[in-house]
Amino acid sequence: MVAEKFAAEGSNVAINYYSSEAQAKELAAKIEADHKVKAIPIQGDVALRADCENLVKKTIELLGGIDVIISNAGWTKISRFGDLNALTDDEWDKVCIRMREEIEIHRLLIYVKNQCWNTNVKANLHLFREAEPTFNANPEGGAFIITSSVAGATPGGSSMAYSVSKAASMYIWTVSIHYAVFTNKYAGIHLMKGLASSQSSKIRTNAVLPGLLLTEWVSSNT
User: What residue ranges define each of the domains in the chain, with the CATH number in brackets?
Assistant: First the structure.
């Protein structure tokens, strides 16, 4: 676990969770017992800008600052990559297109339509933006690390729409989206490079590109 690795090195950690409250609290308690550091669970949906902002603010408030962000969330719909009929037009839109409706009664529907793009791409931007002033104020700056995917560098992965989204998160400023998840991941990589090249030299911005990780979510959706 990423949080445990940082805690083992003496870092206080904030653990973001969406719905797994019990697991997050259990992990926080284990980290505090094992490593004698502070570990705080914070609920939030990183597909939502307000939740990203709240995550950073609460971390700073409860831990006294922030030095490193690991943007580790991701979302996809699993399908055979080469099957162009596996996702309907609406499902491609659910993966890649930003919707603007904000009527509360439609919140769940809008959330589903935005989830892949907002989670895989825009969450990185929102977290970075909120943490940037604190990073710049830190004597040693800060580090922002995006967990992207090999699907962002080469077509492949759980679905074409997912691969597009991971590509998107790496160069969001210049990307032209052609395929749904491949583009999404490609954009994420471009976002990382855009942030790294254009923002403060005090903030180190990088991405890691793992392959398939057998998380609980992956196991339950394959």
Answer: 76-220 (3.40.50.720)
Q: Quickly count: other Cβ atoms within 10 Å of residue 158's Cβ.
A: 23
Residue 44 has pLDDT above 60, yes or no: yes
Q: What is the DSSP string of 11-56?
A: --EEEEESS-HHHHHHHHHHHHHHH-S-EEEEE--TTSHHHHHHHH
DSSP-derived 3-state class of residue 218:
helix
Q: What is the pLDDT of residues 175-203, one digit of tens each?
A: 333 344 455 666 777 778 878 888 888 99
Q: Residue written as tokens 């392959």?
A: 211
The Cα 118–Cα 122 span in angstroms is 5
Residue carrying structure tokens 């977290």: 127
Which H helix or E strand runs over 180? helix 180-198
* Beta strands, E only, the chain: 13-17, 39-43, 68-71, 142-147, 203-208
What is the chain's Cα-based Rg? Answer: 17
| Angle, helices 89-96/160-167, rounded to nearest 10 degrees | 30
Task: Give residue 57's identity as a one-letter amino acid code.
Answer: K
- DSSP-derived letter for residue 158 is S
Q: Which helix (H) or strand (E) holds 89?
A: helix 89-96
